[in-house]
């Protein structure tokens, strides 16, 4: 007899976990499928940043803050460690300081300007050479991406009644019947496809015409830095101001973009904007770059790593720049939507492509989706 569920979620990354959580909170019988022994995609290959400050004012910032509430709920439940570290955008150029000041004055996000001295008091990793100031936001969080997904799955299974099937590749869905590569079948009233960067196995025609593009990023991790305190803020350079949509509301952004394009066009070629997240161990994740579509290959570029390190050294200071790990991640991103949603057939929803904001947005986006699908809003606590 084919097992029957209320909801089946295909994909065990952070997007799929968010949907499994929202469904289980509504008292539904949920099964989760993941083709790997544990999530191995973008959900584990990132900074561990929960980054509301990068979302534009209005609905998307509110969605990011809703996600933040869910991360803090998971901490309260004892699921995983979550640091309320905040973030600092550093200004080493006058146009960066002007833009950050302009952004703060808009009053759309919780943030404040800091003097160079105040920046250095909050983070020993900011390079004081040429530092003009910075912008602090208290809303950002830090989780360990290497273990967060596994800890959430374990909690969903043990306390929320979710059934998890890992090492299970789903190859077809037909009339609410799911089939694995091994020939097993399951039925579910509602199926949510959260297939990450895999745009070909399920509903390839829909995903091919969705506008989604793949993005590859290269990242680095340093050896442990001495004298790092828990809660050290995330740091972002002025290069990030041209990457996050929250700053598009600032008229001075175009001037900053022109200056960077004229001084360092190679940074735009590889989509480089440098950031750092330092864990209580002192290990520091550094990055990153962005290559899209046909530019993506299986092979990492030493040129990108060298450019990132060049820019990182300008704005951050590490006592030991020894790099102990290098890796890349690939995620799907839509050019205009925060996530791609589509009804594939009756009872089947596709939910793919939160871009580089999966850790920041997935819980909030899934919460919004389930509110729309069921007409019932669930509170976090």
Automatic annotation (TrEMBL):
Cofactor names: FAD
Superkingdom of origin organism: Bacteria
Pfam families, sorted: DAO
Domain FAD dependent oxidoreductase: 6-367
Alphabetically ordered keywords of this record: Flavoprotein, Oxidoreductase
GO cellular component, one term: cytoplasm
Presence of the UniProt keyword Flavoprotein in the record: yes
Homology family: Belongs to the DadA oxidoreductase family.
PANTHER family assigned: D-AMINO ACID DEHYDROGENASE, SARCOSINE DEHYDROGENASE-RELATED
Protein name: Hydroxyglutarate oxidase
């Amino acid at each position: 007899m084919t097992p029957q569920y209320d909801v089946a979620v295909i994909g065990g990354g952070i997007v799929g976990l968010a949907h499994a959580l929202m469904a289980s909170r509504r008292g539904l019988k949920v099964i989760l499928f993941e083709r790997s022994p544990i999530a191995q995609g973008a959900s584990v290959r990132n900074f561990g940043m929960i980054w509301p400050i990068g979302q534009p004012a209005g609905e998307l910032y509110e969605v990011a803050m809703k996600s933040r509430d869910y991360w803090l709920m998971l901490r309260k439940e004892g699921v995983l460690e979550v640091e309320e570290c905040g973030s600092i955008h550093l200004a080493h150029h006058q146009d960066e300081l002007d833009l950050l000041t302009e952004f703060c004055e808009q009053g759309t996000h919780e943030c404040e300007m800091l003097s160079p001295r105040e920046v250095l008091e909050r983070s020993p990793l900011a390079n004081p050479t040429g530092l003009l100031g910075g912008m602090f936001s208290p809303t950002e969080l830090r989780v360990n991406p290497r273990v967060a997904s596994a800890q959430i799955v374990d909690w969903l299974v043990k306390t929320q009644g979710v059934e998890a099937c890992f090492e299970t590749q789903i190859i077809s869905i037909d009339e609410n019947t799911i089939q694995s590569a091994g020939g097993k079948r399951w039925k579910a009233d509602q199926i949510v496809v959260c297939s990450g960067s895999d745009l070909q196995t399920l509903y390839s025609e829909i995903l091919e015409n969705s506008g989604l593009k793949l993005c590859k990023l290269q990242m680095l991790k340093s050896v442990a830095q001495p004298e790092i305190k828990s809660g050290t803020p995330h740091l972002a350079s002025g290069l990030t101001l041209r990457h996050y949509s929250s700053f598009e509301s600032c008229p001075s952004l175009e001037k900053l973009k022109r200056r960077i394009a004229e001084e360092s066009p190679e940074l735009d070629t590889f989509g480089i904007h440098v950031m750092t997240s330092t864990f209580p161990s002192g290990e520091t994740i550094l990055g990153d770059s962005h290559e899209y579509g046909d530019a993506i290959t299986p092979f990492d570029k030493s040129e990108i790593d060298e450019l990132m390190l060049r820019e990182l050294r300008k704005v951050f200071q590490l006592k030991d720049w020894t790099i102990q790990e290098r890796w890349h991640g690939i995620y799907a991103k839509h050019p205009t939507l925060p996530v791609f949603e589509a009804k594939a057939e009756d009872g089947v929803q596709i939910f793919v492509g939160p871009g580089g904001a999966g850790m920041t947005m997935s819980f909030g986006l899934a919460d919004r989706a389930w509110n729309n699908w069921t007409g019932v809003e669930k509170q976090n606590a």
